[in-house]
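Writing this down once: the sequence line spells out the residues, with the fold written below as integer tokens. I am pasting one below:
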Amino acid sequence: MNAGRRADAMKPVRDVGVWPGMRISDLVAQLEDSGGFAARYLGMAARILKSMLRDEGCVRFLSFVGAPVATGLRGVIAEAVKRGLFDAIITTCGALDHDIARSLSEYYNGDFWLDDAELRERGYHRLGSVLIRLDSYGPAIERFMQELLEDAYGGGARELGSFEVARLIGERLRDEKSILYWAARRNVKVFIPGIMDGAVGTQLWLFQQRHRDFRLNLFKDAEELAEIVFKAKRTGALMIGGGISKHHTLWWNQFRDGLDYAIYVTTACEYDGSLSGARVSEAVSWMKVKPEARRATVYGDATIIIPILIACALDGG
């Protein structure tokens, strides 16, 4: 892929053909040679993802931020986990919060331009174009988590890593559209390095106020991640959005000289120097992605890009 960026390896721009009944893989396979603009990189990403999934010696990471779990993209991620496309997940506390809340109640379609002061008076949170009833979020998560933690504590749990918290949640949920539900049943470990930054983290702290011998131990996460990374022949990652979930995925893979496959989907700008805006190529200089790795950065809304990528991967084309 990297050689394809050299001027001496140029290929002609090809028109994209469409026809009735075409498979999504037939469409996406044409995009890499279409010349532009973001479509070209989506085509690259689809090819790389298929190679990663076919590589039996590759440990596959999926990282994502919390906000998309409030949307229908949750179902796509859950299906990918259900079908065994990924071996480990790194995400944020918000992803846990939304996965629980949506398993217990409904979220609603809204609009970016609604009056937020009015929504507050009516008892709704707004997350982009998604509306969430106040009592469907904080209070519902509190009841769920306190009951879960009391049961776990009664069973002898005194010290948990974030991946163990995620597994307990997944085991308790009965929603087959849930990401954590399928992660628990497919033995996919879910790591949340910033677990205190959200409703679930707050509930862990509140529980610890009543049970002072209860501990959150993130060193357990480090031990599990070390076991995964150091035993892997090769590693690859599909990273949805930036922040701590992207960085933690890259950080751990630097200890084996970097990812062998790397796909990053973002809407962030590179020119403010942020990690969220940084293209995958920047990670090569940090030894987090190998120089020869198959890699692509796709600019676009993950709620559009990821369903296309996963559907293409499952299409078999």
Observations:
- The first strand starts at residue 58 and ends at 64.
- The two ends are 20 Å apart (CA to CA).
- The mean pLDDT is 96.
